[in-house]
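$ ./design --mode recover --in tokens.txt
reading tokens...
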């Protein structure tokens, strides 16, 4: 074993200590600068979940359409699965992603809904059929079927449309608009205008 490095004179040891100290200071400053930069830099994150064949682009204040649509389907699933047994858990989960102005409205709507549902041996779930995005309004439409069943009875299904506006706020998706209605036809701008034209024409012919 060789000890030549430790057996040098004082001058050499002093120089080595100075170099080591200087290097440590440079490294410390570099790490500090990089840490500050990472903490304050808002980068775009691209997520490709293993079970999904598309990429989601998520930024601090925005995301791509595919992300918003998938998130709307998830929220629809929570709403559709709500019953007397899990009403409070559903409200708690949804409130994490609802704007403050929607939280009370959603809670009251869900509580009113479950009052008319059986309290035991009842299951409900939502099956999405189609998801669309309207660029002019920023609305996402999730159409599908709200299914329900009592233990041992036949499954009942009814068409329903869930309507959302979702925005990224501080890196988190937040629902700022919500509506739901029976049927399979989303209330897009073109649909509303057509219905208004038909209604106006009907009134004119009276």
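writing sequence...
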């Amino acid at each position: 074993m060789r000890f030549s490095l430790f057996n040098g004179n004082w001058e050499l040891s002093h120089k080595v200590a100075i170099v080591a100290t200087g290097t440590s200071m440079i490294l410390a400053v570099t790490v500090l600068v990089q840490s500050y930069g990472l903490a304050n830099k808002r980068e775009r994150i691209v997520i490709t979940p293993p079970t999904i064949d598309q990429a989601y682009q998520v930024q601090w204040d925005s995301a791509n359409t595919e992300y918003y649509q998938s998130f709307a389907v998830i929220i629809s699933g929570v709403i559709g699965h709500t019953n007397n047994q899990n009403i409070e858990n559903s409200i708690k989960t949804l409130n994490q992603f609802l704007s403050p102005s929607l939280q009370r409205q959603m809670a009251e709507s869900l509580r009113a809904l479950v009052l008319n549902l059986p309290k035991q041996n009842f299951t409900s779930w939502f099956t999405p059929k189609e998801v669309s995005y309207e660029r002019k309004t920023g609305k996402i439409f999730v159409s599908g079927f709200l299914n329900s069943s009592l233990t041992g009875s036949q499954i009942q299904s009814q068409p329903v449309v869930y309507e959302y506006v979702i925005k990224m706020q501080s890196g988190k998706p937040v629902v700022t608009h919500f509506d739901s209605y029976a049927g399979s036809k989303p209330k897009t701008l073109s649909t509303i205008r057509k219905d208004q034209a038909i209604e106006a024409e009907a009134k004119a012919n009276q």
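exit 0
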